[in-house]
Design a protein that fits this description.
By secondary structure, the protein is α/β, with parallel strands linked by helices. It is built from twelve helices and nine strands. It folds into two domains: 162 residues, Rossmann fold; 128 residues, N-(1-d-carboxylethyl)-l-norvaline Dehydrogenase, domain 2. Strand 4, helix 4 and strand 5 form a beta-alpha-beta unit. The model has no long low-confidence stretch (mean pLDDT 96). Bound molecules: nicotinamide-adenine-dinucleotide. The site of nicotinamide-adenine-dinucleotide (NAD) has 25 residues, from helix 4, helix 6 and helix 11.
């Protein structure tokens, strides 16, 4: 079992840290929010006055932070950065969803200090974090991947080695861009059927067994009351927030610009999610984009 420092105990990081404790690891946790720290300490973690004190004895350092600027500051800030306090031979696992450029920058700076790094963003949401069934998309060397795999196993079900540093972040934005396009397409197709007198359950069943079949239609249907146990049947509460999808689509567009890639469907999905968020839906599940195409109110 390993000594692990965990920084960032929000909706995702809190339950992920608890799963490491359940797996028998020794976990020292830190967050700017005292209540977030208290919840994980209650489950058996230790804590220190600063993240610096937590990382000193850690073999692995895991971070689950909101965005690239937080990851950059936590590791590389000249005053409080963890970089000067992490022991040589340790490995940093950053599971935040951030731009690949920042991941590579942190990886390079840590390597100069003899510290390993993987970017390991996740898919599976808060439900997956609690259940320990997340998918991890890992960017790093073969050796780094081999070292972190047993640690990630305690928090996830599918651990993928996507490629070198930054590759995990690229895989994550490709997946979420495709997911958003599928959700928009499924929503407009269902609304078209409804506007022309079809029953949403009947149409969903037909398309699920036909060539329109896809994950958003088959297991995460955006039309209320077609399925139980999905956010659309619970007033779009829980699940994966519109604000987070909008953030990920922003990262996908930045990635497309950097690589001169053409992503017209992703660009349209980004605009639609930005508009949906700006209309006050940022805290709802991303399947609520279904309402954007609602014909019954016209
Ligand atoms: P969150 O806002 O709930 O948690 C972030 C935590 O980081 C907060 O507790 C905050 O206090 C802490 N924090 C910020 N700056 C810090 C610092 N300098 N030192 C210590 N702690 C600091 O966010 P979340 O929903 O847990 O998401 C975290 C990351 O996971 C994001 O990058 C997000 O895009 C990604 N993600 C989220 C989901 C999801 O469904 N929530 C799914 C997949 C990926």
């Amino acid at each position: 079992m390993a000594n692990i420092a965990f920084v960032g105990l929000g909706n995702m990081g809190g339950p992920m840290a608890i799963n490491l404790i359940k797996a028998g690891h020794k976990v020292c946790v830190f967050d700017l929010s005292e209540s977030a720290v208290a919840q994980v300490v209650e489950q058996g973690a230790s804590t220190k006055v600063s993240a610096i004190d937590c990382v000193k004895d850690a073999r692995f350092i895991i971070s689950m932070l909101p965005a690239g600027k937080h990851v950059d500051a936590v590791y590389l800030s000249p005053e409080t950065g963890l970089i000067n306090h992490i022991a040589k031979g340790s490995v940093v696992i950053d599971s935040s969803t951030i731009d690949a450029t920042t991941s590579r920058k942190v990886a390079t700076a840590l390597a100069e200090q003899g510290v390993g790094f993987v970017d390991a963003p996740v898919s599976g949401g808060v439900g997956g974090a609690v259940a320990g069934t997340l998918s991890f998309m890992v960017g790093g060397s073969d050796d780094e991947f081999k070292q972190v795999e047993p640690i990630l196993d305690a928090m996830g079900k599918n651990i993928f080695h996507a490629g070198e540093h930054g590759a995990g972040q690229i895989a994550k934005v490709c997946n979420n861009m495709l997911l958003s396009v599928l959700m928009v397409g499924t929503s407009e197709a269902l609304q078209l059927g409804l506007a022309n007198g079809l029953d949403a359950k009947v149409l969903s069943n037909i398309m699920s067994k036909s060539s329109g079949s896809n994950w958003t239609l088959d297991v995460y249907n955006p039309c209320p009351d077609v399925m139980g146990n999905v956010p659309s049947s619970n007033d779009y509460q829980g699940g994966f927030m519109v604000d987070l999808m909008a953030k990920d689509l922003g990262l996908a567009m930045d990635t497309a610009v950097d690589s001169k890639s053409s992503t017209p469907m992703g660009a349209l999905a980004r605009s639609l999610y930005a508009m949906h968020a700006a209309s006050g839906n940022g805290g709802k599940d991303f399947s609520s984009i279904f309402n954007l195409f609602n014909h019954s109110s016209k």
